[in-house]
């Protein structure tokens, strides 16, 4: 159980660093932090969290870059807009 506890403590510390970077309006720090996650699942989540934080900073192009990296890891990512997931061809017509 110690390994699992350590994992979640590290995850929470990482999320805290993302939030601090967002509050300090440091998009570059957020992008570097997103690269720090070693496993595929954590990298996916890192890019999602980084994307959200960058959107809050109105850094849309950087946020898009993070979301695209998430999609490269998991093409069927749940973060994709519902319209695009349900009707891929129609989402671009809107």
What count of structural domains? Answer: 1
Profile the largest sheet. Answer: none
The shape is flat
Residues in β-strands, percent: under 5%
Helix-strand blueprint:
Layout: H1 2-23, H2 27-35, H3 40-56, H4 60-73, H5 82-86, H6 88-91
Helix pairs in contact: 1-2, 1-3, 2-3, 3-4
Q: How would you describe this protein?
A:
This protein has 94 residues and is mainly α. It has one domain (2-91). It has helices spanning 2-23, 27-35, 40-56, 60-73, 82-86, 88-91. Helix 2 (27-35) runs antiparallel to helix 3. The longest helix is centred in the N-terminal third of the chain and has 22 residues, at 2-23. The chain starts with a helix and ends with a helix.
Features of the shown structure:
single chain, 94 residues, mainly alpha, 76% helix, 0% strand, flat, disordered C terminus
Q: TL;DR?
A:
With about 90 residues, the protein is an all-alpha fold.
């Amino acid at each position: 159980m110690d390994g699992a506890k350590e994992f979640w403590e590290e995850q929470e510390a990482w999320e805290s660093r993302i939030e601090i970077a967002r509050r300090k309006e440091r998009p570059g720090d957020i992008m570097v932090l997103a690269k720090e996650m070693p496993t595929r699942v954590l990298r996916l989540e890192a890019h999602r969290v980084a994307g959200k934080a960058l959107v809050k900073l109105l850094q849309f192009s950087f946020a898009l870059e993070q979301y695209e990296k998430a999609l490269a890891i998991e093409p069927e990512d749940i973060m994709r807009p519902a319209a695009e997931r349900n009707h891929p061809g129609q989402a671009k017509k809107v």
